[in-house]
């Protein structure tokens, strides 16, 4: 019995001593670090402390603005560069299209038989009249080549009126952003200006006479009555051809440093390389 009492007393003394040591450790940690070991740690999903909030705020990744790449360019330089690029595109495009075979021998812009008259082309060729069909297509392209010079002054006016905001948006836009700008500014004007010129050109190159003959022969052989508005068709296709050439030039200047033939083009489009 006495032995049991001594053992129990020894255990109590040991537990008491350990408790005192633990209290000493907790007190020391709190004094040195400020951490209270008696406070249970926050559980997952609990309210975030102000310390955590501050940490999250400082580690957030800022959004980089794409306009930062243009920091070394003035607004005037950006505007001048875009206007020069468009002027080169328009001048070069119109000049090439206005040449003999400028439309006819350029597969990217060549004006084909109107879709509603494709059956005319097929029928005439089956009847051994392929040369007449070829002549009809050739003269449509000749009319476009004759009329396309009307585009230059309209484009020039649109380019001159470009704002600095327009220029910045275009520079950081897609490969055909400048061409799309021109479309929005000039398409209706081009159609209005081109129609009378195309009509005159169709008569000048003899396309109206050839096409009357072509359609007349088709109607005679098939017993049908086919008509089409060549003036509207050629006008639309001529405008599409001009924009195609301008878009190609714009894409070249944007993506091919060798095509930046002036210092302002090199400076402005060099900056957009890293946009």
Can you offer a commentary on this structure?
There is one protein chain. With 275 residues, this protein is mainly alpha-helical. The chain is 69% helix and 0% strand. It is built from eleven helices and no strands. The chain has helices spanning 2-33, 50-59, 75-97, 118-126, 130-147, 151-160, 164-171, 177-204, 207-222, 230-255, 263-272. Helix 4 packs antiparallel against helix 5 (130-147), helix 5 (130-147) runs antiparallel to helix 9 and helix 5 (130-147) crosses helix 10. It is elongated, with a radius of gyration of 39 Å.
The gist of it:
With 275 residues, this protein is mainly alpha-helical. It is built from eleven helices and no strands.
Give me the secondary-structure topology.
Blueprint: H1 2-33, H2 50-59, H3 75-97, H4 118-126, H5 130-147, H6 151-160, H7 164-171, H8 177-204, H9 207-222, H10 230-255, H11 263-272
Helix pairs in contact: 3-6, 3-7, 3-10, 3-11, 4-5, 5-8, 5-9, 5-10, 6-8, 8-10
Rg measurement, Å: 39 Å
Major sheet attributes: none
Structural class comes to mainly alpha
Low-confidence stretches: 2-22, 41-68
Helix share, percent: 55-70%
Q: Mean pLDDT, as a whole number?
A: 77
Shape: elongated
Please report the distance between the alpha carbons of the first and last residues: 91 Å
